[in-house]
Amino acid sequence: MPKRLPDDPLLRRLVAAQLSRRKVLLGAGGLTLASMLAACGTSGTGKAAQDGATAAAAEDLSAQEKEVNWANWTLYLDYDEKTGSYPSLEAFTKATGITANYSEDIDGNDTYFGKVQAQLAAGQDIGQDIITLTDWMAARLIRLGYTQELDHANIPNAANLLQNLQDVDFDPGRAHSLTWQSGFAGIAWNKEAVPGGLRRVSDLWKPELKGRVEVLDEMRDTMGLLMLEDGVDIAGSWGAAEFDKSLEVLTRQIADGQIRQVKGNSYKEDLISGDALAVICWSGDITQLNFEEGGKWEFAIPESGCTLWSDNLMVPVGSPHKANAEALMNYYYDPVNAATVAAYVNYISPVQGAREAMEKIDPSLVDNPLIFPSDEDLQRAHVFRTLSADEETDFSGRFQQAIGN
Amino acid sequence: MNVLAAPAKPAGGPGAAEKAGGKTLQRRRGRTGYLLILPGFIFMLLFFVLPVFSLLATSLYTKPPGADIGQFAPALEFGNYAVVLGSYWPELLRSFAFALVATAAALLIGYPMAYLVAVRLRGRKLLQGILLVLIIAPFFTSFILRTQAWKQILADEGPVVPVLRALSLLPADGRLTATAFAVVCGLTYNFLPFMTLPIYANLERLDTRLIEAGSDLYASGFTTFRTVTLPLSMPGVIAGTLLTFIPASGDYVNAALLGNNRDTTMIGQVIDSRFFRVVDYPGAAALSFILMLAILVLVTAYVRRFGTKELI
After folding, report:
1. Residue A389 and residue B157: Cβ atoms within 8 Å?
2. How many CA within 13 A on the CB side of residue A8?
3. Is the pLDDT of residue B16 over 80?
4. CB within 8 A of B229, min separation 6: which ones?
5. Which of A280, B107, B141, B304 shows a CA-CA span of 20 to 30 A to A166?
6. Does A304 share its domain with A321?
7. Which residue in the set A275, A393, A405 is minimally distant from B269, CB to CB?
8. Which neighbouring-strand residues pair with A100?
9. Cβ within 8 Å, pair A393-B69
C-alpha cells in the first residue's frame, strides 16, 4: 500500500518532488504563514493588480497521476443512496482508469471565490482539477486568468454542446469552460394558498401575499426578473439607469414588508414551513421539492420572460491534472451519460442527444419542460449580460445594500 | 460593600510565606513563568497579533484604477473608514443594541437558573448534575441547526404563532420569524449558557452563612440579595455578560436566519456581504476593525465601572 500523500495540494507537490524532510517542513512553515497572511489580507492580489501578470498554468502530471479532483455543488450528480456512491463516476473510472475524487465543496459562487482567490492569484493548486461555477463567476475567473485553456482535441464530445451555448460572451469558442447544467430562474407559488396562480413578476406584489414573498439573493436572477418585468432586454446593452429603476422596486417591496426575506437556497425550507407562499426561485429546486413533499408548488416562466443561467466546468490554473479533467468532461458530454445525470438532477442538460438517450433511461422525463425545454420556452429565457469589473462592484454593492446587507 | 470583608482570612495571607523565600527561588520562579507563557505567547502572536496587523493593512488598501475584482494595492487609504462608517453606522448601532438587550435578557433568565442550581439545590449533587447537563445540552447540537429549529417552531404555520393569534397576543397577520424580536430571542437563547455557567461557578462558592446572617440582622430577602448575594456574585455576572455581549454583537447567523432584510441587519452580515459578495476587502476589513475597537472601548468602560479585582 503506497503511503498516503497529504491532503494539502502544496504539501503534496513538495512531497512528490521528493524534497528532504527538512526542506518540506521549512517550506510548509513558510507557506502556512504566507497563505495565512494571504487569507487575512490580500498581499498576493495587490501585486497582480499592479503588473497585470497572471500565473502560468501548472505542469500536467495526468499521465503519471491517474486521478481527477472535482468540486461541485450539492445534489448535482447522480447518487446512489444504497451504496453511497456516484454510479456514473464509477463507470468513468472503469472506462478510463482515472480515479475521480468528487466533493460537494461549492455552496455559493461568492463564498467559493473568497475561499480560493488568494491561491488562484498566486497560481497555486487549490486541490481541485475541475471547479463548477455559474456564468458570471466563470467570466470573472477566466478574465482574471485563473483558468487553464482546454484542449478540445481531448474533448471530442464537446461537439455535442447545444448550439445556443457554444459561443458565450465571456468565453468565445469555449476555450476555458464547458457547461455542466443550466436552469431557469422564474416564479413559483403554493398551489393551495394561491389557487389562481401567478403570471407576472408583479403578481408577487399582490396585497394578499404581503409578508409571504421571498426572492433570491442571487443578484442576476432577482434583478434579471425585475428588469425583464420592466421591459429591459437583460442580455442587451442596458446600463445603470435601468438597473436603478428595478432596484427601486425591490427596495420598496422590502421596505413595505411585502418581501419577507431575501434568500439563497434556504427559501425551500420556508416554502415547506409555509412562511413563504410565492417566490422567485430556481426551476430544478421546485421539481425536487415537489418530488419530496408531494407536488404542492407550481413553477412558471413569467410572461415577461425568465433568466437562464448555466454552471460551467473549468480547470483552475494550478491544477496538475488537466488531461484527466478533460477526459472527465468528455465522458459527461456523451449523451447517455448526460441523460443519466439529468434524470437525477432535474436541470437542463447542455448535451445534444441527451433527450433521445433519456428514452431508454426514464421515458417519463423526456417531456419534462424543465429538463428539455421547448424552443418557445428557450426563446423566453434570457442570459444576464456579463458585467465589467467596475459595474459588477457597483451593482452588487448597491444590490447588497438594498437587501439590507 | 462591608460584607465583602466578612470571610475571615488567616492574618498575613499567602504573601507572608513567599517573602520568607530566598531571592534565587524568586528569580527561578520568574523564569519558569515566562517559559510557561511562551507557547501561548507564540500562539497569540501568530494567530492574533499578526492577523490584526494584516487586517489593519488590508483596511487601508486602495483599488487602483482599472483593477479587476479582488485586486487591491497597498496604501494608506483612511477614507475607507469614513466610507463604511457613513454607510453602515445604523447596522453597527443596531448590533450593539440587539446584543445589549439579549445580554440583559440572558442575565434575567440565567441568574435565577444559576442561583437555583448553585444555592438552592446545594448538597443535592445528582439534581445539580442533571440540571447542569440540561443547561449545556443545547451545545450538543450545532449552532446553525438550533437556530434553524427555532425557525420551524416560530413559523407562521408552526405551533406557536396560531396560538398567539387566537389569544390576540399577536394581530391576525402578525408573525414571529423575520422580525427583530426573533433575532433578539435567538441571540438570547444561543448565548444563554455563556451567561449561566460563569454565574453558577461563582455562586457555587457563595457562603450561605452570609445569607443567614442577613436574615439574622432582619434584612428582607431582597435586601440580603441586593447587599450580599449580588455584590459577591459580580465577578460571575461580569464574566457572563462579557461572554454574551461580545459574541452577540458580532453574530450574524441569528440575524441572517431569523431576521428580515429591512430592520434586523447586524454588522456581521454586512462584513460578510462586503467580503464575499461585493469583494470589497478593504471595506470589510475596516468594518471588522471598527467593530473590534468599539467592543474594546465598551468593554473597558464596563469593566472599569463594574469590575472587581477578582476578575482581572
Report:
1. no
2. 12
3. no
4. B115, B119, B203, B206, B210, B211
5. A280
6. no
7. A405
8. A68
9. yes
Residue A270 resides in a domain? yes
* Spatial separation of the C-alpha atoms in residues A184 and A255, rounded to whole Å: 27
Q: Would you place residue A250 in the very low, low, confident or very high pLDDT band (cuts 50, 70, 90)?
A: very high
Cell digits of residue A83: 451504496
Q: Which of A274, A52, A335, A8 is nearest to B158 (CA)?
A: A274
pLDDT digits (tens, 9 = 90+) for B170-222: 888 888 989 999 999 999 999 999 999 999 999 999 999 999 999 899 999 99
* Rounded CA separation B157/A233 (Å): 39
| Owner of C-alpha cell 490580500 | A42
Residue in A with minimal Cα distance to B288: A40
**A96 lies in the same domain as A193:** no
**C-alpha cell at position B195:** 451567561
Provide the pairing of β-strand A297-300 with A381-382: unpaired
Which of B69, B87, B257 lies at the smallest CB-CB distance from A140?
B69
> Residue A41: what residue type?
G
Q: Using an 8 Å CB-CB cutoff, list chain A residues near B262.
A: 254-255, 257, 404
* Domains contained in chain A, number: 3
Q: Which of A49, A259, A393 shows the shortest C-beta gap to B278?
A: A393
Residue A157: strand, helix, or coil: helix
Name which of B60, B61, B71 to mutate to probe chain A: the one with the most chain A Cβ atoms within 10 A of its Cβ: B71
pTM value? 0.81
Q: Which residues of B touch A48 (CB under 8 A)?
A: 71
Q: Is the pLDDT of residue A324 over 60?
A: yes
